């Protein structure tokens, strides 16, 4: 249950410039995200073309199939622990991520981590939309082969059919977000489970072509020495966390709609260590089978679908991947920037308006160009970790160690100088110093040239350094309980 003695006595300042209907605290009437919904939420986080590509891409670091699965499982366990910390806090306070961040960074300072998260989400939103469009193209070409003439010429790296597919899915997602969080919840409940249909069918088909056997000791990268094997193992584990660093930080956007701590814990348990591990295992099995059949690992399940000769199977599989990826993208990469951008000017930018801005920016970043870069996954994920790690560490230390899980919710919306989260003109200098120092350190680690193992450490370096600095700079300077 929520701490109503802390959350509700003063109410939310209705005339404050820091509030709009989308950013207000959750009430008992809209706390409808139960265990099943949160389970599906985490399923959507795992069940995407991008997630498959990430898991398979880790094989290129030189680990064997079983070593890669074990390393990813370790990362999944760390992700599980972090999701419980953020989820319980989000459910207890009952506000979206950018408002929750006001407690640590100040009522205006919270815009800094919020916009960092929005930037990450915009990139991933564009990339996932592009990946979904590739599945739609496969489907269209099987149904209407004559459309191949639309793939001859390209504009800014995308064919006419590519643009048509991308913009159709782009518009569908914008339509979903325009109906609010209740429709987002329904999209998540549908998208999470449905992709298992495509993955299981794909696994059975490729496993049969591989003669119903694969070598879990196979690898796609060069063999590693003992020391490099350990380094790669640690790197893969932390890259798993970095891959989900963005959704982890803004998990309060969803957890706040849960009616109880029990629902959070149960939903996280089924959705992360159980389901996410299962998805990792089936992704690695499919990739090892493709290595045996084609002599190389196919990092894109849509590319694998294109090898199937049966049109009915191809159409069903492509449709499943396209539809599921749309649902996944809305949940993971549309909700957060919509809230984050709205938080910059709540009186003028609603949740829906923030979504429109996100959608437009997702085109401008040319996501298909980003996805073409072979080093993009490792280095971009390192960059995500460098930015999101410190934010995670600062939020956790502030809420659990400095404020001892106590929040005066009304003050999160108060512009009054005497407000608890006003700090210095609305900014908490200690949190910002911790963010800058830890962020710079994390970025330096992430950009170490020709060293993917070091790059993978950007998330833990950022999280530990950010949280540690926040504690050292703030200890003794604020009440333990408010």
From TrEMBL:
Annotated TM spans: 41-63, 70-89, 95-116, 123-143, 155-178, 190-210, 230-251, 272-293, 313-336, 348-370, 376-397, 431-450, 456-473
Where are the stretches annotated Disordered? 1-23
Q: Which compartments does it reside in?
A: Membrane
- Show the Pfam families listed in the entry: Transp_cyt_pur
Family annotation (CDD domains): SLC-NCS1sbd_u1
**InterPro entries with a match to the protein in the record:** Pur-cyt_permease, Uracil/uridine/allantoin_perm
Question: What is the predominant subcellular site recorded for this chain?
Answer: membrane
- Name the domain of life this protein comes from: Bacteria
**Membrane topology field:** Multi-pass membrane protein
Swiss-Prot/TrEMBL keywords: Membrane, Transmembrane, Transmembrane helix
The answer to whether the entry has keyword Membrane is yes
> Which residue windows does the record flag with biased composition (Basic and acidic residues)?
1-13
Question: What family does the Swiss-Prot or TrEMBL record give for this protein?
Answer: Belongs to the purine-cytosine permease (2.A.39) family.
Name listed for the protein in its UniProt record: NCS1 family nucleobase:cation symporter-1
Q: Which organism is it from?
A: Nocardia albiluteola
